[in-house]
């Protein structure tokens, strides 16, 4: 399998080169040349345990790592999860919950980043190289990336988070990791500022080469690939319980990486009838799938901070497919967006894409959903998952539905307390962080400042 850029100016590369490249050298995002059709394998995959299913899916996209080594990487990735199923499904009235928070940082990002860490180390050891990982986070990606890469050989990791715009527990999960190869940068700005700085530094090819920059954000294809697996796994578990042929899947959505993995799974043949784009007040994506216009607004702080995003990195990957894999059209649309903060695509009779539905859920609805779920089912939703559940209740219809639970509620105790003071929102992993020593540098949200910080840190 070879990987190509959405901008069309990067020569096709192997999986290992795609992982190490992160953002394509032409500024685009990497995608597989073809998407495998697995409809004739769905029955045999249905009974597989999560690691075995992951190996089957990965093998279709990774042909430059021997199968035995790939299986070892998969087993290494998921051995740290606290549930035997890795991603269990919990029935909750009409909506089933796919719990993706059983990894070391209690967030769905662990499923991809516990895999990417060993992959990076495997490739670096094979090539005798070093890597400087640069990432931007709106909350959960940072701590998951740090846990996946802390202490690993030949890797330095720099994570930017928006200063005082992530939850206190999210910040503590990042800044309490004191390994020498971990560097936390709190930027005076938004997640979008950090993401823009990251992309700009990756486009500086001399800097990228000199400092061996690598990406852990969902611009890295390996992140998306790892997330494809749980769409198959979750749908299988729902259909086993409820019957039927397909499932509507609701996805709390900010940077479009998680739901794009669902889009890939659906194109492969996963039993997904439609995907629900569930946003909070930062509704650029739900507006697009309703109107066909992708228009940037101002980031609004909410109870679901990991979704407080106005420019979604992985949206460009979707545009590439929506434009018939025409890189020229993608470049024109991205230039239009860069110049006017807006772009539009043809709006067909069935909407922008009949495989998607969309809803924007506000704070009041989020709190009401958390409260009702605890009252009716004794189950506590984190505010991101509550956005997905509320959207599913609006749009899923009468067939089987599944909502991705992206974080443990204990990461957002203030939101849970606002919804229902009696609902429990604790976890031993987080309780252990209280009073922990932290290390972080607060800097301006400027490319030059981040660049110089990296240079000085690596110079020792």
Task: Give structural attributes.
460 residues, alpha/beta, 15 strands, 19 helices
Structural account:
The protein is an alpha/beta fold. The protein has a domain at 89-106 and 222-426: 3-Layer(aba) Sandwich (Rossmann fold), CATH 3.40.50.1100. The protein has helices at 15-21, 42-45, 50-61, 67-78, 109-127, 140-149, 168-175, 191-203, 205-210, 221-242, 257-268, 284-291, 315-322, 327-340, 363-377, 383-395, 413-419, 428-431, 447-459, and strands spanning 3-5, 30-32, 89-92, 95-99, 131-136, 155-162, 182-188, 213-215, 247-252, 272-279, 293-295, 342-344, 356-360, 401-405, 441-444. α6 (140-149) packs parallel to α7. The longest helix has 22 residues, at 221-242. The radius of gyration is 20 Å and the shape is globular. It starts with a strand and ends with a helix. The model has no long low-confidence stretch (mean pLDDT 94).
């Amino acid at each position: 399998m070879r990987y190509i850029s959405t901008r069309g100016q990067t020569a096709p590369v192997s999986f290992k080169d795609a992982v190490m490249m992160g953002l394509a050298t032409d500024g685009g995002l990497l995608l597989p040349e073809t998407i495998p059709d697995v409809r004739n394998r769905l029955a045999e995959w249905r009974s597989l345990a999560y690691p075995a299913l992951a190996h089957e899916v990965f093998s279709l996209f990774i042909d430059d790592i021997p199968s035995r080594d790939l299986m070892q990487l998969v087993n290494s990735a998921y051995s740290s999860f606290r549930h035997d199923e890795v991603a269990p499904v919990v029935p909750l009235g009409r909506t089933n919950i796919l719990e993706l928070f059983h990894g070391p940082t209690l967030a769905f990002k662990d499923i991809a980043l516990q895999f990417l860490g060993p992959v990076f180390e495997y490739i670096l050891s094979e090539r005798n190289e070093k890597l400087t990982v640069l990432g931007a986070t709106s909350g959960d990606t940072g701590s998951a990336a740090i846990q996946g890469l802390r202490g690993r050989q030949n890797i330095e990791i720099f994570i930017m988070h928006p200063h005082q715009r992530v939850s206190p527990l999210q910040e503590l999960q990042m800044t309490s990791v004191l390994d020498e190869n971990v560097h936390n940068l709190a930027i005076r700005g938004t997640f979008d500022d950090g993401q823009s700085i990251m992309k700009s530094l990756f486009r500086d090819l001399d800097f990228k080469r000199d400092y061996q920059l690598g990406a852990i954000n969902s611009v890295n294809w390996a992140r998306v690939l790892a997330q494809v697996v749980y769409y198959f796994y979750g749908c299988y578990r729902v259909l086993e319980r409820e019957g039927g042929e397909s499932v509507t899947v609701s996805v709390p959505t900010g940077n479009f990486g998680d739901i794009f993995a669902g889009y890939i799974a659906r194109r492969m043949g996963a039993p997904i009838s439609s995907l629900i784009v569930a946003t909070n007040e930062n509704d650029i994506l739900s507006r697009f799938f309703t109107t066909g216009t992708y228009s940037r607004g101002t980031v609004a702080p909410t109870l679901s901070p990991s979704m407080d995003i106005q420019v979604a990195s992985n949206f460009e990957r979707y545009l590439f497919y929506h434009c018939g894999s025409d890189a020229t059209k993608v470049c024109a649309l991205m230039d239009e967006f860069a110049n006017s903060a807006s772009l539009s695509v043809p709006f067909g009779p069935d909407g922008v894409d009949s495989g998607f539905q969309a809803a924007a859920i506000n704070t009041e609805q989020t709190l009401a959903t958390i409260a009702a779920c605890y009252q009716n089912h004794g189950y506590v939703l984190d505010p991101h998952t509550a956005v997905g559940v509320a959207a599913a209740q609006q749009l899923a219809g009468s067939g089987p539905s599944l909502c991705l639970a992206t974080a443990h509620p204990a990461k957002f105790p203030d939101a849970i307390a606002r919804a229902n003071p009696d609902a429990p929102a604790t976890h031993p992993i987080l309780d252990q962080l209280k009073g922990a020593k932290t290390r972080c540098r607060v800097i301006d949200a400027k490319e030059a400042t981040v660049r110089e910080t990296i240079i000085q840190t690596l110079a020792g």
